[in-house]
Amino acid sequence: MENSTYIALSRMDAQQRAMSVVADNMSNASTVGYKRENVLFSDFLSHQHGSKQAEGADTESYTQDRATYRDFQQGDMQSTGNPLDLALGGEGYFQVRTANGVRLTRAGRFEEQQDGAVVDESGNALLDRDGQPIVIPQTDHRITISADGVISTETGEQGQIGIVTAQDDNKLQAEGSRLLRTEQPTTAVERPNIVQGMVEGSNVQMMTEVTKMMEIQRNFQFMAQFVDAEATRQKNAIDKIVQVSA
After folding, report:
1. Which phi and psi (to 5°) does residue 113 adopt?
2. Domain named Flagellar basal-body/hook protein C-terminal: which ranges (predicted)?
3. Model-level pTM?
4. CA distances from 151 to 155, 172, 214 (A)
5. 117-125 long-range contacts, CB within 8 A, separation 24+
6. Which is it for the CA torsion 133, 199, 171, 99, positive or negative?
7. Is the dihedral of CA 36, 124, 141, 132 positive or negative?
8. What are the tens digits of pLDDT across the range 156-176?
9. How many CA atoms are closer than 13 Å to the CA of 59, on its beta-carbon side?
10. How distant, in Å, are the alpha carbons of 37, 40, 49, 63 from that of 217?
11. pLDDT, tens digit, 9 for 90 and up, residues 198-245
12. Which of 123, 188, 122 lies closest to 160, judged by CA?
């Protein structure tokens, strides 16, 4: 098999990866707080050796899957009327405590358990500015949350939601479609902008993803046709050599 076929196969492998990422984006188009992913490809240059190479043929460029990164552009605000549904306008993340430790999230759909603990859809406790779970008295029912995260009920203030930022968003590692893990130190946002009764929707644009999927599919099919044509060319060349040798 010639190197041109290997190069084409490297491109096909990259397109399969890109298709997987786009499909994941599309499946999370309605997931609260989801941030779309992108793939980053680069050229892997293989330097040829030898003095008999034709001019300009000293390198071979393969497609290399370098990384997957997230687009942290804010999603659209969606009104729900639920007093424990919260959206973040601008920077920052909510903090929730999971079985594996504290995680960051933009998914602000919370609920109150029977014991008064405020948790996300998976039962992870929402944390305050001191990193402690937020608990609302079971007898309180009128919940208001200010833009800076102060939770108040008919009996007074019950705590303040902790909103933090990470040093480098690109180093956040996804756990599922809503949670983000970081090994970096986080910093409290001094003036967060929390909007009560709303959630931040996914920032996936379906038309963009569909267009991208069609482009990936066309490129993959083109590469597949090239590989087939190369295989046919090599077979014909071998047949002719065999005939001449006979």
Report:
1. -80, 175
2. 195-236
3. 0.77
4. 11, 28, 47
5. 118/84, 120/96, 120/178, 121/178, 122/98, 122/178, 124/96, 124/97, 124/98, 124/179, 125/96, 125/97
6. positive
7. negative
8. 999 999 999 999 998 899 998
9. 5
10. 18, 17, 35, 16
11. 999 999 999 999 999 999 989 888 888 877 777 777 777 777 777 776
12. 188
pLDDT digits (tens, 9 = 90+) for 41-90: 655 444 445 545 555 555 555 566 667 788 999 999 999 999 999 999 99
Query: In the numeric block, which tokens belong to residue 139?
Result: 């007898």
- Amino acid letter, residue 91: E
Alpha carbons 31 and 15: distance in angstroms, whole number: 25
Neighbours of 24 (CB within 10 A): 16
Report pLDDT for 15: 85
3 state DSSP class of 9: helix
Any idea how long the chain is? 246
Query: CA separation (Å) from 53 to 35, 57, 60, 99, 234?
Result: 47, 6, 12, 59, 21
